[in-house]
């Protein structure tokens, strides 16, 4: 298996928040959606990959190389997009490009200009005069113009209107025409993932909840609906999160086969959306 | 590393214009006898100071260190480029102020100005190296806002300390001791004081850079 990104037992302790031994990996040619509620540790994980913060323990390998030992080699091939622009806003798009370009050996000016045209950006416009969506597109153009193999995006769609969001997602999909590339992008908007993600990694409170392909998640997880009488101390333990109403209950399971055996035909099992999985898990852990 | 210095210059093109305008007024304001000798040094130090602070202000305003440290660049290079940039600003300051001085002399504007010389350059370099050595570790450790306060204090000290020191010595040292000290200083060969100062400044800058590197290496963004 050719992993473009591999994370093993990654740990970072901030005192009030700890990222606890996160592990997941991404193969070449795929998009991984990195989800979790605000404050789950998504940005922390991404900053650890980018070596913007120092890990306390664990391993991060990008293209099979340690991200700290081979920092320059690794970053040469990563394109990054963050939720805020962090560019020098007094500069124009072209001026900012002239600052970034010389850092990359493989910078491709033609490609950058093509993206700028495609995205409808005006190169002599000051960054501070761009809308949030335009700034995001500029970040994306910069991230895609040095032949990066791994694109890392932290909340690229947050705060954008649906039209812009769809455009960004389309660009991501186009990018994956090249089977050598991989994309890791974090979001708390789960419908983004239904559109483009092949793999999902879900973290909550600094802990890994699940990671795997979208199909495997669809096979394992289910929303179970049944009447109240079925719930007791033992059966409750089977669920990751339960919502009870006057008429019955709805609950999330991470093991559809087992639930099917246990309850047979007395319950209805439906396929959960990613949003369901996120909501039930977050609520479940809040009740526990 | 040169790309980083280039970045610090490109983000503050305006500062060069400000430096030019400032140097016009510089010669008019500091034309009295006390300051006349030091006008090139003061001008250069002030210009370098403005440029160091301005580039850091932009980095701080947009949290651009996040971008910079995401590029294929080592943290070491980020730190050392800031020291190198300070040296570049001194050169820029010397050129701007020196050229302005020459323009004044050649165009016959009635101001008591002499041409810039090597002494001015050495003193300006030493003064900026001293300031930067104290400023940068604080900047890298505590960030822009706090380091600006230190800057203000340093700047005031630099301007008032020599005067205060002289008056303190005048009041508290009897004539004999002061005279002896002066004689002893005169006994030293001509190159000695300058060389000693230069060596001290180089040592201080090296120590400061090492401290800054250590601080920045473990920083979280």
Which descriptors apply to this entry?
heterodimer, A: 288 residues, alpha/beta, Rossmann fold, 6-stranded mixed β-sheet, 4-stranded antiparallel β-sheet, 11 helices, B: mainly alpha, 10 helices, 82% helix, globular
Describe this protein's structure:
The complex is a heterodimer of chains A (288) and B (221). With 288 residues, chain A is of the alpha/beta class. Chain A folds into two domains: 3-215, P-loop containing nucleotide triphosphate hydrolases (Rossmann fold); 221-287. In chain A, 34% of the residues lie in helices and 28% in strands. Chain B is globular. Chain B has one domain. Chain B is 82% helix and 0% strand. The mean pLDDT of chain B is 89. The A-B interface holds A 47, 50-54, 71-73, 75-76, 78, 80, 82, 84-91, 95, 98-100, 102-104 and B 3, 6-7, 10-11, 58, 62-64, 66-67, 69-74, 218, 220-221.
- How far is it from the N-terminal to the C-terminal residue of chain B, by CA? 20 Å
Please give the largest β-sheet of chain A: 6 strands, mixed
Quaternary class = heterodimer
> What CATH architecture of the largest domain in chain A would you give?
3-Layer(aba) Sandwich
CATH topology-level name of the largest domain in chain A: Rossmann fold
What gap, in angstroms, lies between the N and C termini of chain A?
37 Å
Largest sheet of chain B: none
Overall residue-averaged pLDDT value of chain B: 89
**N-to-C SSE series of chain B?**
HHHHHHHHHH
Strand pairing plus helix content of chain B: what structural class? mainly alpha
- SS field, number of helical segments of chain B: 10
Domain tally of chain B: 1
Number of domains of chain A: 2
Strand portion of chain B, in percent?
under 5%
**DSSP, total strands of chain B:** 0
């Amino acid at each position: 298996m050719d992993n473009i990104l591999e994370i093993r037992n990654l740990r970072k302790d901030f005192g009030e928040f700890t990222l606890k031994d996160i592990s997941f990996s991404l193969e070449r040619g795929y998009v991984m959606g990195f989800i979790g509620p605000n404050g789950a540790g998504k940005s922390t994980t991404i900053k650890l990959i980018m070596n913007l913060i120092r890990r306390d323990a664990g391993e991060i390998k990008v293209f099979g190389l340690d991200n700290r030992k081979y920092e320059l080699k690794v970053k040469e091939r990563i394109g990054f997009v963050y939720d805020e622009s962090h560019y020098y806003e007094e500069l124009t798009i072209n001026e900012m490009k002239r600052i970034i370009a010389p850092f990359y050996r493989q910078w491709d000016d033609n490609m950058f200009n093509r993206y700028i045209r495609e995205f409808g950006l005006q190169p002599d416009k000051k960054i501070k005069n761009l809308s949030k969506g335009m700034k995001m597109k500029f970040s994306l153009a910069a991230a895609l113009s040095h032949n990066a193999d791994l694109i890392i995006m932290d909340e690229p769609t947050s705060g954008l209107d649906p039209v812009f969001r769809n455009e960004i997602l389309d660009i991501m999909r186009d990018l994956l025409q090249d089977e050598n590339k991989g994309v890791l992008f974090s979001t708390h908007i789960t419908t983004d993932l239904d559109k483009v993600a092949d793999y999902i990694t879900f973290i909550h409170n600094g802990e890994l909840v699940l990671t795997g392909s979208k199909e495997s998640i669809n096979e394992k997880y289910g929303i179970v609906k049944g009447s109240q009488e079925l719930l007791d101390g033992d059966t409750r333990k089977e669920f990751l999160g339960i919502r009870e109403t006057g008429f019955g209950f709805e609950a999330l399971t991470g093991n559809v086969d087992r639930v099917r055996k246990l309850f047979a035909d007395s319950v209805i099992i439906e396929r959960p959306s990613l949003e369901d999985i996120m909501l039930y898990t977050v609520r479940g852990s809040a009740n526990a | 590393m040169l790309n980083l210095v280039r970045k610090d210059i490109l983000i503050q093109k305006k500062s060069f214009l400000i430096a030019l305008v400032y140097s016009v007024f510089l010669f008019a304001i500091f034309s009295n006898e006390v300051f006349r000798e030091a006008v090139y040094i003061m001008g250069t130090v002030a210009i370098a100071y403005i440029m160091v602070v301005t580039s850091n202000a932009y980095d701080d305003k947009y949290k651009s260190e996040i971008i910079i440290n995401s590029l294929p660049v080592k943290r070491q290079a980020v730190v050392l480029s800031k020291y190198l940039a300070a040296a570049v600003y001194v050169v820029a300051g010397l050129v701007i102020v020196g050229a302005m001085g020459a323009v004044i002399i050649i165009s016959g504007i009635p101001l008591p100005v002499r041409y810039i010389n090597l002494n001015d350059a050495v003193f300006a370099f030493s003064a900026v190296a001293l300031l930067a050595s104290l400023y940068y570790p604080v900047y890298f450790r505590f960030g822009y806002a706090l380091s600006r306060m230190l800057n203000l204090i340093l700047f005031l000290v630099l301007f008032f300390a020599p005067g205060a020191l002289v008056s303190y010595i005048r009041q508290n040292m009897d004539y004999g001791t002061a005279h002896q000290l002066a004689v002893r200083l005169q006994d030293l060969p001509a190159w000695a004081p300058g060389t000693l100062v230069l060596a001290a400044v180089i040592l201080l800058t090296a120590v400061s850079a090492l401290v800054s590197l250590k601080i920045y290496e473990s920083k979280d963004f």
